[in-house]
Every structure is written in C-alpha cells, then in structure tokens.
# Entry
Amino acid sequence: MSKITDITTQKNNKSRVSIFLDGEFACGMEAIVALENRLKVGMQISLEELQELSRQSDLESAFTKAVKLLSRMLKTQHELKTYLVNKGYSLDLIDIVIDKLKSYNYINDTEYATAYINEKKQKNGKKKMYFELKRKGISDSVLEKVLNKVTKEQEQQTIKRLAEKYINGKTLDVKLKKNLANYLYSRGFDWDDYIDIINHLFGEEDD
# Structure
C-alpha cells in the first residue's frame, strides 16, 4: 500500500489532477474520477487500485474527447476509432467507448450514411457516394440499404439537371459531348444511365 501525499490540479488541463504517492508523482487522471472515488491526501491505496482508477480515467477522457468531436461534426464509427487511436488510447478501451456512444446513439453509421446521401445525391451518382462512404468505413450492408433508397428516376433527374447546367450557353459539338460524358462519369454516374440523356440533349436520339 502507498500513501497519497498530494493531489494537484494540472496547469495545462484543469480537468485533470496529478496524484503523488509517498512524495513522488504516480499518475495523472481525470478530476471527476478522483472526486467520484473520494481520493484525498493521506489515503492509503494499492498500485492495483490506482491502475484501475487510471483505466477509469482513460475511459472518461476518451469518452469526453469523442463527445466533444461529435458535437462539432458527425463521424462514422471508423473515423471516430481512428481519431481515438491517434490520441493514443488502446483498442480495447476504444471499443468500450464506442459501445457507450452507440447506446446513446451518438454514433450511428446508418443515420450518417442516410444524411450523407440525402445531401450529396443532388450532385453525385451512387458509385461515387459508395466509394466515398466506403472510405469512411461504412459497411457494405449499410451502404446497400441506404443507396437502394435512391431510385432510378431520381438519378435520371439529377443527371438531366447537371447535364443541362453543364451545356448551358455552349456550342453543342463533339468535344462538348465528350467533356459532358466525362463530367457525369466523374460524378459517379454509369454510362448506361446518362448516354440516352446526352443524346437527347444533343438531338441525337435514335429513331
């Protein structure tokens, strides 16, 4: 057993305290953890107990950082996990934090993907949205479910609107037609979905 000889607020982070055992610095921890466990000068504590409190502190710290990040911007589970890994937290601790965040619905990949698609579908096709969300760590099962809500008719309307805006006021020649096709492809639309629309706009429909 060791004796707590001092508990001081850290200068660079007022929400954390430094714990001193037998006159020497032992560890830092979240002040709320020290308060909840009623740590005080003169108290006897074992190294095992201190290690457990330190783990509780890390959980509190990781959760607080995650909530602070999520209050500024939505994140996927994968993005949040990467953020916490970069902050130096262990994977087992991160899993606990993520489960807690899920229980509060602070992270929800289905809701994130749905919101993302509702915003981006006005300018992008399913293919581009799929790869962008995949890069953010959204699972194939979630992607399939949310992307299937974008109908063929909606994509056709988006392609037509983007194409009309692209060619507005320009000379309808072969070069413009090629550039338009490349533009729509870059937006994540398939050839089969936009070629008939392009031909119609250029007056080249099949009889």
Summary: The chain has three domains: 2-103, 109-147, 152-201. The chain has a mean pLDDT of 94. The longest helix spans residues 47-72. The radius of gyration is 27 Å.
